Amino acid sequence: MTTSTQKIIYTITDEAPALATHSLLPIIRSFAAAAGIEVDTSDISVAARVLAAFPERLSEEQRVPDALAELGELTQSPDANIIKLPNISASVPQLRAAIAELQSQGYDVPEYVEDPKTDEDKENKARYSKILGSAVNPVLREGNSDRRAPAAVKAFVRKYPHSMGAWSKASQSHADYMKGGDFFSSEQSITMPEAGAVRIEFVGKDGSVEVRKELALQKGEVLDSMFMSANKLRDFFEGTLNDCKATGVMWSLHVKATMMKISHPIVFGHAVTVYYKDLFDKWGETFDQIGVNPNNGLSSVYDKIKQLPESQQEEILQDIHDCYAERPEMAMVDSVKGITNLHVPSDVIVDASMPAMIRNSGQMWGRDGKQKDTKAVMPESTYARIYQEVINFCKTNGAFDPTTMGTIPNVGLMAQKAEEYGSHDKTFEMTADGTMRVVDAASGDVLMQHDVEEGDIWRACQTKDAPIRDWVKLAVTRARNSDTPAIFWLDPERAHDMQLKAKVEEYLIDHDLAGLDIRIMGYNNAIRESMERAIRGQDTISVTGNVLRDYLTDLFPIMELGTSAKMLSIVPLMAGGGMYETGAGGSAPKHVQQLVEENHLRWDSLGEFLALAASLEDMGMKYDNPSARLLGQALDKATGHILENNKSPSRKVGELDNRGSHFYLAMYWAQELASQSDNPALADVFKPLAEQMAANEQKIVDELNAVQGAPVDIGGYYHADPAKASVAMRPSATLNGLLDSLSV
Ligand SMILES: NC(=O)C1=CN([C@@H]2O[C@H](COP(=O)(O)OP(=O)(O)OC[C@H]3O[C@@H](n4cnc5c(N)ncnc54)[C@H](OP(=O)(O)O)[C@@H]3O)[C@@H](O)[C@H]2O)C=CC1
Ligand SMILES: O=C(O)CCC(=O)C(=O)O
Ligand SMILES: [Mg+2]
């Protein structure tokens, strides 16, 4: 029996996954309908979020609901069943591009004014600030994270391994990080003995006190504070550049300006003004006048100087050029188009960029398009150290071998904006020298304090107790279910981790640990132990905080599977519902470029297939709906056939792409449903479809592949025309007709 509550919400997001959805969703809907399950959508794309923020400026037809707020509310319901695809976490240049596109389509959304003077501009900026950066995931992640490579995917990779760049013992590549003056060095942490409130205050040199934020804290909540010295950061950058210049190693910066949306753009901005120091020394005043913001990358210079006379523009371009002669070679994002590592803050995102470099023999691409040894600059030493461990390991042992290596799944503390990824509203760039302090509101006691200087970045992070308990439980459950050792990565050098360690030790006692191997280790030891075991074919669960969750669920999947898109990524919501994230990576902007240029979409929807199967099975169990369970089990088998028969998308135009892989999924899924005997009625529904698909296999594949090789118009990048995108993504009339026949 199905009821109206048995509904799956499938998110509409951005870029490649959004395009793939035009092809996959009609298939999912047709199949789910046969089992009485409704699949609704929720548009949380950056364009939809911009439109939802300005209803008063739009006509009735142009308005869209605040889907993200609605979905956020749904996470509090035990009935929630959400399939969450990756979405753009927009940097300022990306947000501006989305706004410009919407304006060109006739939507009267306002400009994003970075330095607003009028009340209206200020109000608009406040609305846009809720859209900038990683603004979706933190709202929806009301549970902790369980990411792993399913056994079928591991088995496939062992048979058909991806390429891995060889490592040389002579490689000069390394990670470089601050040895003092960073967040790691200054971290302080407390646990609230009772519920209470604190004030975050700045005390000026003259003794004046300015309250920056008031926070209500729960009993058992962990509160951290820390700062990064701007002067030491700049000295560090200068040192890394001089070192590269002296040794001939290429320089690159790896930060997470999207998720750390306040602190990392500032760090990125310092890198820009240090690398292009001569340029900013000479033109600083002019740049201030025309509104250049280095936190948005060198693209901001290119963009803003358009207002200047042409002769001045040329002089500036020449000065930029001169910086390249002065400074060491910098890693390129696109050497053909001349786009460097410092162009925009969202092109090189550490979770994906470091594993890509490590997989590629520790090298990145230079100005001449050639691969080179690279210094990966990651100022925050807290987490950068793990990459140096991986690099050391690869230099000693060679590249990881996907055909023999074990797996390193992750259980991550993530719920309720845990740790640094929830720190944005408590991050401040100092405007004067003084002291930042956290004061108990009731007693007036100073709980934590730091002496800071103008320009320093100070931040506080919260981690609530209930998510920590849930995380410990999830780790024990995963260790038990997969019979695998689990390591809690808690660093003895970190104040925050020591607060967590006390809790972990206490909460572990609540569980039956008989026969389980659960350890607590510092980061360096934890990663070394996990890698040592992995190259011996042994599996180890990493149980980590939020940032390591993010980093490790790209790092190890990229070594093990070639991409984190092949991960199963589940968020058991604390209120009882389920969110099924797809893969562990992002929205693959380069894939859109390829589709538009040659009508080939190389996006692999494997993550979506895995997520949907888990969602259907959960629905089946929760509502005692055998049809849903059957659909889920059949889908998992179909996904297995996709892998065994190598029907995943190819990277090359003219070959099977995303759309073709969806066809095969539908065919295998229908065949599995048709051949099962548990539910004869369902088998009868799918038999004709399975037969027709098999009979028309070649015709459908030909129709799908025939459109490739020429550019295609989808009517927009951030806000594509749904009709055009649907036509582009569903080019087989035969397949469309067969799916329609199922729904009638
Ligand atoms: N959960 C979320 O919502 C997340 C969102 N993001 C957002 O995604 C955007 C891009 O981030 P970026 O760091 O470049 O990382 P991506 O994961 O999008 O891209 C890195 C590369 O991984 C490969 N890849 C990723 N997913 C797939 C897939 N399903 N099929 C095939 N290949 C895949 C592609 O390699 P190739 O090009 O070689 O084919 C891609 O270029 C940003 O806007 C970021 O904010 C990032 C991470 C998570
Ligand atoms: O929300 C984002 O910006 C990125 C999320 C991410 O990278 C992850 O969860 O792995
Ligand atoms: Mg990530």
Automatic annotation (TrEMBL):
The record marks K256, Y421 as: Critical for catalysis. It comes from the Bacteria. It is an enzyme of class 1 (oxidoreductase). GO terms for biological process: glyoxylate cycle; tricarboxylic acid cycle. GO terms for molecular function: isocitrate dehydrogenase (NADP+) activity; metal ion binding. NADP(+) binds at K84, L85, P86, N87, I88, S89, N137, G586, S587, H591, R602, W603, D604, R651. Pfam families: IDH (PF03971). This is Isocitrate dehydrogenase [NADP]. It comes from Parahaliea maris.
